[in-house]
């Protein structure tokens, strides 16, 4: 009897190891693709990585399961992958975009969801493909591509939207300089209930000092420390 228990135990252990390896590989591919899109746009180096880490941190703070937090991290790496379809003349344009050019930029969530479409583990209503597709929806329904409103927007997309807004404001763009973290916090609060989900903003504010530390030049907290810190508070 003990032999059977040992064999079953060893099998479960092996399955877990295999799952961990699959997850690690998916994560590494997501990170590589995120790096590719960040490399295309010099203004946004480390943007995808930051969105991955901050989204996961918010998920942990909100008490989501470990699997959903890992999915948020992967979706963060991949959220802007559709920008690969935007011509450099638009993506890197200095100065404001024309209406036509902005329409091209607005296609990137749809393109991104199509790019990851063949990956079946990314499918489903709360899957990574849907998080990518809806990361530019606004809580008040004025976003794109579908104009979804409130809780109709996938939860993961609402979390990514907060991390994305934060990271984007803190980086130089062709049309403006980076905004300091303290001012960005004010902007995020200002956007609560209009652009961003208030419950997600509230959760983010509770960990904002740790996220600020993570994003600071010193990076006094690394990614794992940040997540561990949030789990213990
Ligand atoms: Fe990562
Ligand atoms: Fe985006």
From TrEMBL:
List, alphabetically, the CDD domains matched.
Answer: HDc
Q: Which InterPro entries does this one have?
A: HD/PDEase_dom, HD_GYP_dom
Pfam families named among the record's database cross-references: HD_5 (PF13487)
- What SMART domains has UniProt attached to this entry? HDc
Q: Which residue ranges does the record assign to the HD-GYP domain?
A: 22-220
- PROSITE patterns found in the cross-reference section: HD_GYP
Q: What PANTHER family does the annotation carry?
A: CYCLIC DI-GMP PHOSPHODIESTERASE PA4108 (PTHR43155:SF2), CYCLIC DI-GMP PHOSPHODIESTERASE PA4108-RELATED (PTHR43155)
Q: What is this protein called?
A: HD domain-containing protein
């Amino acid at each position: 009897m003990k032999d059977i228990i040992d064999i079953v135990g060893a099998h479960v252990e092996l399955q877990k190891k295999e799952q961990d390896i699959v997850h690690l590989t998916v994560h590494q591919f997501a990170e590589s693709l995120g790096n590719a899109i960040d490399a295309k746009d010099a203004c946004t180096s480390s943007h995808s990585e930051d969105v991955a880490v901050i989204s996961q941190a918010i998920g942990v703070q909100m008490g989501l399961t470990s699997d959903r937090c890992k999915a948020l991290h992967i979706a963060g790496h991949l959220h802007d992958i559709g920008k690969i379809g935007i011509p450099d003349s638009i993506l890197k344009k200095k100065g404001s975009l024309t209406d036509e050019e902005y329409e091209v930029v607005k296609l990137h969530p749809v393109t991104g969801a199509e790019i990851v479409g063949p990956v079946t583990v990314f499918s489903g209503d709360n899957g990574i493909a849907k998080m990518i597709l809806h990361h530019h929806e606004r809580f008040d329904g004025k976003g794109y591509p579908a104009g979804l409103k409130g809780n109709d927007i996938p939860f993961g997309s609402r979390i990514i939207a907060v991390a994305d807004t934060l990271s984007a404001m803190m980086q130089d763009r062709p049309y403006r300089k980076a905004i300091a973290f303290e001012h960005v916090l004010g902007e995020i609060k200002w956007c609560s209930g209009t652009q961003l989900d208030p419950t997600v903003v509230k959760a983010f504010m509770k960990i904002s000092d740790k996220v600020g530390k993570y994003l600071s030049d010193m990076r006094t907290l690394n990614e794992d420390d940040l997540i561990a810190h949030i789990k213990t508070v």
